[in-house]
Specification:
The complex is a heterodimer.
Chain A (H helix, E strand, L loop, with lengths): L2 H10 L5 H8 L3 H18 L12 H7 L10 H17 L2 E6 L2 E6 L2 H79 L1 H6 L9 E2 L4 E2 L2
Antiparallel strand pairs in A: 1-2, 3-4
Chain B lengths: L5 H9 L3 H23 L2 H17 L10 H20 L6 H4 L9 H18 L3 H12 L4 H8 L3 H29 L1
Helix pairs in contact in B: 1-2, 2-3, 2-4, 3-4, 4-8, 7-9, 8-9
The chains are: A mainly alpha, B mainly alpha.
Chain lengths: 215, 186
C-alpha cells in the first residue's frame, strides 16, 4: 500500500480532514481526482431522494410465516380474581355499602369505635350467658345432692331393717334352741318320773297293752 | 425517543409480533428501494427487488445469528438478488430512472445545479461495470466498511479495494472524455 493510498483511506475513514488530505495529495493528480469523485458521490448520497417508496404490504407474508394463532384466553378467571380483590378491599376498608329501604348507601364507618362496641356487647352477652350457666349448674347440683341424700336415707333404713330382722331371727333361733334344750332336759329328767305318777282321777289316758283305755 | 435495536425487533418479530416486523421493514425499506433504483435503473425493478428482499428476509429471519449488523446481513441478500436480477434480465443501461425524477424536485437555481451534478454522478455510475458500481454503492450510499462489503460479496477485502479504485479511475476517465466532448461541441 502506497503512502498516498494510506492517506486517502485515512481520509475515507474520517481520520484526516478534507484539507489535510488535499494538502498531502496536492502533488498527485490521480489521487486528487479520486478524492473529487468521492466528494461528488458523497454529496449525491447525502442529497434527499424524492422517489416515493412503494407500499408493500408484508404483513400477510409475515403472518403466514411467523404469526401463530393466539391461544384462546378465557377472561373469567381474571374477572373472578378482580371481583375477589374488590370484595376484600371493601371488607377491609371502612367503606360500607348498605341496601336499606330500596336505596344503596355508601358510608364510611369509624371502625375502632364500632369494634369496641361490638367487643363490649359480645363480652356482656358472654358474661350473662356464663351467669345463667352457673345458676343452672348450682340448681342441678342441689337437686342432685338432695336425690343422693334421699337415696342414702332409704339405703340406711333398709339396712337397719335388715339388721333388725336378722337379730330377731337369731333371737328366735336362740330361743328355739333354748326351748329345745329345755324340752330335752325335761324329757330326760322329769318325764319318766311324771310317767310313773298318775293320780287316779287323772283324766289323761294311760297306755295299756291293749290300747287306750278311757277313764 | 428510545429506539429499539434491530436485534430486539427481530427477537420480537420471531415471537410473532407484527408491529416489530413492520418497524423493521419501515426502518430498512427506503434504503433497499433506493439501492435497487440506483443499481437497476427503474422503479419497477427497484420495487421488485424490494419485494423480493423482504420476502427472503421474512423467510430467513430466524437464520440471522447476529455475526454482522442486520443491515449488512440484509444487504448481503439484496446484493445477491440484485445481481441475480441483472443477470437474468440482461439489464442494459438506460436513463429510465433519471427520466422518472420528479420535475418539481428542483425549482431554485441552486437546486437545479445540485440536481445536474447528481445526474452526472448517476450517469457516470451507470457506465461502470456492475461489480464496481456495487462496491461504490455499498461504500458511499450504504456507508459500509471495506470488510463489511467483502463479507457481503464473499470476496477478499483487497479485491473490494481494487474494484473500488478501478471504479474511481474509470469515473475520472469518463469525466475527462466528457470534458473533451463538451469542448469539441463548443
Amino acid at each position: 500500500m502506497s503512502n498516498n493510498q494510506q492517506i486517502f483511506e485515512d481520509w475515507l475513514e474520517g481520520k484526516l480532514t478534507e484539507q489535510q488530505c488535499q494538502q498531502q495529495l496536492q502533488f498527485d493528480p490521480v489521487w486528487l481526482d479520486r478524492m473529487l469523485n468521492v466528494q461528488a458521490m458523497r454529496a449525491d448520497a447525502a442529497a434527499p431522494r424524492f422517489e416515493v417508496v412503494p407500499e408493500f404490504d408484508s404483513s400477510a407474508l409475515f403472518a403466514k410465516q411467523w404469526q401463530r394463532p393466539k391461544p384462546q384466553r378465557s377472561w373469567w378467571p381474571q374477572v373472578s380474581l378482580a371481583l375477589s380483590c374488590v370484595a376484600m378491599i371493601i371488607s377491609l376498608s371502612p367503606a360500607q355499602l348498605q341496601l336499606k329501604d330500596g336505596s344503596l348507601t355508601l358510608s364510611w364507618q369509624n371502625t375502632e369505635a364500632e369494634v369496641n362496641a361490638a367487643v363490649s356487647t359480645a363480652l356482656t352477652a358472654y358474661q350473662h350467658e356464663q351467669q345463667q350457666w352457673l345458676l343452672q349448674q348450682l340448681d342441678f347440683q342441689q337437686q342432685n345432692t338432695s336425690t343422693q341424700l334421699v337415696l342414702l336415707k332409704d339405703y340406711l333404713q333398709n339396712e337397719l331393717k335388715h339388721d333388725q330382722r336378722s337379730d330377731m331371727l337369731l333371737l328366735v333361733e336362740y330361743l328355739n334352741q333354748q326351748r329345745q334344750s329345755d324340752w330335752q332336759y325335761w324329757q330326760e329328767n322329769y318325764q319318766p318320773v311324771q310317767a310313773n305318777y298318775r293320780p287316779t282321777d287323772s283324766y289323761y289316758l294311760s297306755p295299756t297293752n291293749t290300747g287306750v283305755v278311757k277313764p | 425517543m428510545f429506539k429499539r435495536s434491530d436485534e430486539s425487533l427481530i427477537a420480537k418479530a420471531l415471537n410473532g409480533d407484527q408491529h416489530a416486523w413492520q418497524q423493521l421493514v419501515n426502518r430498512h425499506q427506503s434504503a433497499l428501494f433506493y439501492f435497487g433504483l440506483r443499481l437497476l435503473g427503474s422503479q419497477e425493478d427497484a420495487s421488485d427487488l424490494l419485494q423480493d428482499v423482504l420476502m427472503v428476509m421474512c423467510r430467513n429471519l430466524g437464520q440471522y445469528r447476529g455475526d454482522s449488523s442486520f443491515k449488512s446481513w440484509l444487504f448481503g441478500i439484496a446484493n445477491y438478488r440484485a445481481m441475480d436480477m441483472l443477470r437474468r434480465r440482461k439489464y442494459t443501461d438506460s436513463d429510465d430512472a433519471l427520466a422518472e425524477m420528479p420535475a418539481e424536485a428542483a425549482e431554485m437555481p441552486e437546486q437545479l445545479a445540485t440536481q445536474q451534478q447528481q445526474q452526472q454522478v448517476q450517469q457516470q455510475l451507470r457506465k461502470l461495470p456492475i461489480e464496481q458500481r456495487l462496491v461504490l454503492e455499498l461504500k458511499f450510499y450504504q456507508q459500509f466498511t471495506f470488510d463489511e462489503i467483502a463479507t457481503q460479496l464473499a470476496i477478499s477485502s483487497n479485491t473490494v479495494k481494487s474494484r473500488f479504485y478501478a471504479a474511481l479511475d474509470k469515473m475520472r476517465l469518463q469525466l475527462e472524455s466528457d470534458h473533451v466532448e463538451q469542448s469539441a461541441n463548443f
